[in-house]
Amino acid sequence: xxxxxxxxxxxxxxxxSIAIVQMATAGDPDIITDFIAPPNGTVDGxxxxxxxxxxxxxGGPPPTAFKVLKATLAxxxxxxxxxxxxxxxxxxxxxxxxxxxxxxSAELLFLLGGxxxxxxxxxxxxxxxxTLQAGDLFVFPKGLAHFQYNADSQNPALAISAFGSANAGxxxxxxxxxxxxxxxxxLAISFKTDVSTxxxxxxxxAAKP
Length: 209
Fold this sequence. Notes:
Elements: H1 2-25, E1 67-71, E2 85-91, E3 96-101, E4 107-113, E5 115-121, E6 127-133, E7 137-140, E8 145-149, E9 157-163, E10 171-172, H2 173-178, H3 184-190, H4 195-207
Antiparallel strand pairs: 1-2, 2-9, 3-8, 3-10, 4-7, 4-9, 5-6, 5-8
C-alpha cells in the first residue's frame, strides 16, 4: 500500500512538473483547428495574403528616419494562432532602433543589406554585441533588452526580423521610462542625476518626430 501511495505521489509530481515546464516554455496558445477564420466566415486566398510589404519593391523614396513595417496579428489577422510574425527594418545612415524588448518572443534578425551594430543585455547585465554584414543572422533572446544601430554615415541598412509569436509586443525603453508619466524624482534617484536632467530627457523625447 505504501509503495502504491509513493508511486501515485511520484506520478502526480511528474505530471505537475511537465505541466509547469509546458507553461514556462509556451508562447502563443495552441489552436485545435487548422486556422482561425475571420468573424464573417469568409476564407479564400486573400485571407492568407498580406500585401503591406509591396511598398518595399515599388520604387518609392527611402525613409529619412528609422522605419519598421510589420506583419503581426494586428496587420495580418490570419496569423492568429500561427505563432509567427515578421518585420522589415529600414535604417537610413546613422539611425538606430532604440533599446527595447519583445516580451513574448525571441527575435531572429537577417541583415539583407548594409551593416548593423547590434547587441543585447542578459539578466546578469552582460552585454553581447556584434557587427553584422549583409547575409548575417543574429538572435535576440526572448524578453531581453536589445538594440540595432546603423553606424555607417553613407549607406542605409535593411533587415528582416522573424518572431515566434503572432504578437511579440514591443516595449521601448526610452518611451517607457520618459514618456509614461513616471515621477521625475523617481527617475532622478534611479539614474543618480537631478530632476532638471530628467526633464530635459523627457522634453527631448517629446520633441522627437
